[in-house]
Amino acid sequence: MSETRVTEAWQECGGDMPLDQFRAYGRQVVDWIADYLAHPERYPVLSQVRPGEIAAQLPGSPPGTPEQMDRILKDFDDIIVPGITHWNQPGFFAYFPSCASAPAILAEMLSAALNANAMLWRTSPAATELETVTLDWLRQMIGLPRSFEGVIYDTASTSSLVAIAAAREATGLSIREKGMSGRRDLPRLRLYCSEQAHSSIERDAIAVGIGQEGVRQIPVDAEFRMDVAALRAAIDEDTANGWRPFCVVATVGTTSTTSVDPVREIAAVCSERALWLHVDAAYAGVAAIVPEMRWLMEGVDEADSVVLNPHKWLFTPVDLSALFSRRLDAIGEAFSLVPEYLRTPESGTVRNYSEFGPQLGRRFRALKLWFVLRAYGRDGLATRLREHIRLAQDFASWIDADPSWERMAATPLATVCFRACPDGYDEPALEQLNQSILDTVNASSEAYLSHTRLHDKLTLRLSIGQIRTEEAHVRRAWELLQSAFHRYG
Ligand SMILES: *Cc1c(COP(=O)(O)O)cnc(C)c1O
Fold first, then answer.
1. Which atom of ligand 1 is nearest to the CA of 155?
2. Whole-model pTM?
3. Closest alpha carbon to 278 in 200, 207, 351, 222
């Protein structure tokens, strides 16, 4: 059937966009994307709109009749793009950068076109088998043992939720079956993580019924790493008081400072007490691809599960989080539920990934990771990650060399915590100064940094993870910081 005949017959009662139009707009969109990536200077990194400004430009009611694609694309440019904070720009240094590399963008287009729902093996065998193979490649690249198998979720928050639910199920308390509420036979469950753990851990505990009181935050040492003696003491104290410890979450690359918990020692505690050890390596895990950064995985081979996010520092657009576990069976036991209509002849011989989490429908995310791993290769990825680490170390050395600035934490990876600290300022004045510096740099359109609080001091954070970030961008950020400092300091 020719493209036009499809069009004529179907336009009467609806149908999709005519394919000749699709081709034309498709080319236009790809050109838009290439121009976008080529000219970061056209866009402020941090969107400069005020709250409500975008919504005010959109009609309050939906269109009743078809609108032309030209108009839709024009409004995309005029209304939507100004309200975008450009995570893809080389001046994005806030939070942990997340980056859409070109190969991954192409894969996302194809994934949208296929719209494969990877819920069962048969609902797209390639999506399932590619997920298995691609995650096994990633496992090898970061040096995890063969006993770890992977599943892709949307975010680390979900990956950790799944791990914590599996840990809860592994207590043998039949919570999956009987729930938690109204049960007199159930001890209160306790999960341990450090004070520097990501807030998603606490939220996951809320979601799986452990409650905020069920999360005990363990103090950290001077370098923001979990204090293992304090962990041991907390577990003993809780046990004596009738709590049931069930899970420890260690962090490799904490969100504020990228500190690395002593996983090997924590694993020893977990093995003594038969606790599930989950490692949150959402940001830092992928850095283990760099041979000299393999130390990051020290002890992780003893964990029950570990999460890392290719959608942070592995040039893969949101969303794609990888959970690896030595106990995929326990995850299945926590979630697997197969209604009649999902039973298939090949059940038992294939993996149906929807049995390993709360979601049935699943995007075909493995495709973009496959494109990224192939387009750059292990060595190409290691080279890029190593360069980001080098740039961050350079930036840290500029801070260290300038007496008006100070570093607020060690810099094991590509994220630097620092602040301005000129002589003669008390803490409230430093707070104000650093806030002004941050606001000024972020209003510059050229760079975007975020902050944290360390020892109750406002701390600026510069994190390098964009595939397009070069030394010049980092130098420019340093210039902007210094010029803001001279304006207020
Ligand atoms: C970013 C981050 C998370 C949350 O990741 P999402 O994928 O956004 O849920 C969790 N833990 C750590 C250590 C992180 O850096």
1. 7
2. 0.96
3. 200
